[in-house]
Amino acid sequence: MNDLPISDIVSLALGAAAAGAVSGLLAGLFGIGGGAVLVPIFYQALGALGVDEAVRMHVAVGTSLAIIVPTSLRSFQAHFARGAVDVALLRSFVVAVPAGVVVASLIAASISSAGLRIVFAAIALSVGLRLLFNRAHWRLGDRVPGNPWRALIGFLIGLLSTLMGIGGGVMNNTFMTLYGRPIHQAVATSAGVGVLIAIPGSIGYVWAGWGNPLLPVGSTGFVNWIALALIFPVTILAAPLGVRLSHALKRRHLEIGFGLFMLVVAARFAWSLVG
């Protein structure tokens, strides 16, 4: 990485800034924290830089979670100011979601790179198909379930989202809309779920990769601070624009856009597994 030509370093910096702009926009638009964009981009970029396959996906996921921290906070602040967040539901996740994050961090310390990519691709595919072909009658109920089911769902949202390196919007949007909640409310609440996932998740990935000799320069555990420093400012600026777009779009348009996006992400990781 230290031997990269200046032109490659500049290209990487420009690519990281572009990824930050897209991830910030999507954080506000879909409440997904941008991780579904950042993880595939990081994975490819780290491969081009010669980072060992054994840690490449882990660094992509861990760094994505660290970047989601400011993105989710900014997105949540903007949605909360509009009164769109289901505060009661979010409060009920305060223990369950971080508990799932802790377990995911323990798993990340031993799971293979291919295992992480399989998790990412499988969940992205299922969620994308569900949203793309969604029908109004595709519901599990008209009321979000209470405990113990809600706690279990919150745990799974934290667990699976942390393994994917995303902010929880993919899971929480699906959960809330399956129980009849408006997509705009689901998006707004997902920004808060992203905060509950990203902060403990990034700490967990630092712990999981601590001292690994295969890590690229500028990393603490599975979090790379160089990439974070390049992308952080752009995500903060782009997130409020995504929020404005979210509230301007119709529900079905939002679902179709989110669904198509997730299918593209699933295809990208499926290709990396067979390629």
Automatic annotation (TrEMBL):
GO cellular component: plasma membrane
Membrane topology value: Multi-pass membrane protein
InterPro entries documented for this protein: TM_pro_TauE-like (IPR002781)
Superkingdom classification of source: Bacteria
Compartment annotation: Cell membrane; Membrane
Listed transmembrane segments: 12-43, 55-76, 88-107, 114-133, 153-175, 187-210, 222-242, 254-274
PANTHER family (UniProt xref): MEMBRANE TRANSPORTER PROTEIN HI_0806-RELATED
Name by which UniProt lists this protein: Probable membrane transporter protein
Originating organism: Nitratireductor arenosus
The organism's taxonomic lineage, starting at the top: Bacteria, Pseudomonadati, Pseudomonadota, Alphaproteobacteria, Hyphomicrobiales
